Amino acid sequence: MKSQIPAYRLRFKLSLSTETYLAYYKGKANSIQVRSLDNKKIRFPANAIRNFLTHDGVHGLFEIQFDECNKLVEIEKISL
Known about the structure:
The protein is mainly beta. The chain is 10% helix and 45% strand.
C-alpha cells in the first residue's frame, strides 16, 4: 500500500486583495504562481486557497504539500 505522506512541503507568502482573488474566482486565471521562501516557483489552482478568503482578500504565510508525483495534497495557513 502506498504511503499518504507528502513528498515535500514548501512555504510561501501570499497577499491578494479581494478584487484580485475574485478575478481568479471568475475564471480570468485558473492558477496562482508564487515563489517559495527558498525561491522555488510554485503554481497551484486558484480554488485551492478559497477557504482562506476573507473580506480583505487572502494574506499570510502558507505551506503547500505535494506528493511524489507533484500533485497538490494540501495548503495550510501558517500565520498572518
